[in-house]
Amino acid sequence: MKNIITILLSVLYSAILLGCSNRNVEVPKDNMADLTEISISKGIEETVVLTEQELTQWTSYDNDQENIAFCDDFEDNIFITDEAYMDVHYRLGEENAQQLRVFAENFESWLPEEGATAGGTMGLAVYDLDKDGKLELMCALVQGTGLYACNTFYQAEVENGLVWELDQIARPEELALEIEMIPSDEGWDNAYMDEQGRILYMSVDCEKAGMQSSSCTEGYYYLENGEVVSEEIRSYVTEYYEDENGIYSYYVPNVDASVEKEAWENTKKDFLEGKRAVDASICWKSLYEEEIREKKVLGWFLLLAESLEGAS
């Protein structure tokens, strides 16, 4: 009878261990003294990576776990908890949850270098730009008064757990739009679908040269064949003078020459011909440098999920 009970308990314990996921946990070598079999198989590095199943085995030895790389703060945890993943899975669907998980677990591959925000912020958003089921992770850096903008776009491969950066093409010349912003003109919608079925997302590139002048370029970007394309529609420059007339505005549609306002307005009409407005609202999240460096895997997972859920 005693042997039967022992066997049953052993089977039950094995089932519990098999139910644990295989997320990895990093443990300092100094804490591995009592975990002889696992520590030998894992080697003698400064830290030893354990699966949660192995960690469960270790906890049965009543070891002191204060130095394990767990974080008490829920959003600062080093891995995505089952509860958080299933919640996002329920709200956003399995395919989206899987892609968000890959993005979050590879956050070091798409975060800007330390100090890259240069006192500014990083905009972050997740959206399916071409509606093919694959999510795009977008990072937007804008420094100063818009004199410098840098955008990067990424996709996730669920099968191999990798993230890669998409190529970009800027036409007719190098054009870094501030993709977090849309044209202030009330006549613009957020996005349009053209006759080829591409969704064009409206954006701007604004610059200010001291107190004397400012300029704004209205343009758009879209995803096609794995490449992000940016194009310019029209530009205008506003010069400030201290004479009796006050402000002069120069409207420049893609050429470096002043034109009449009517011709400038016609540039917009020409662009909209053959296109229809579509409901496409991207939910951007803005973070300062300190916030960027503090987040861990779970924090990024929850933030990316919040961005996707807030989009339409």
Question: If you had to describe this structure to a student in words, what would you say it looks like?
Answer:
This protein is α+β, with helices and mostly antiparallel strands and 312 residues long. The chain folds into two domains: 21-70, no CATH class; 82-310, no CATH class. The protein is 29% helix and 31% strand. The chain has helices spanning 2-18, 36-42, 52-59, 82-92, 94-105, 107-110, 261-272, 289-294, 297-310; strands at 24-28, 47-51, 121-127, 136-143, 148-157, 162-165, 167-171, 191-193, 199-209, 213-224, 227-240, 247-252, 276-278, 285-287. Strands 7, 8, 9, 10, 11, 12 and 13 form a seven-stranded mixed β-sheet that branches. The chain has a five-stranded antiparallel β-sheet with strand order 6-5-4-3-14. A two-stranded antiparallel ribbon has the order 1-2. A hairpin with a 6-residue loop joins β11 and β12 (247-252). α4 (82-92) runs parallel beside α9 (297-310). The longest helix has 17 residues, at 2-18. The radius of gyration is 26 Å and the shape is globular. It starts with a helix and ends with a helix. Residues 7-48 and 57-74 have low confidence and may be disordered.
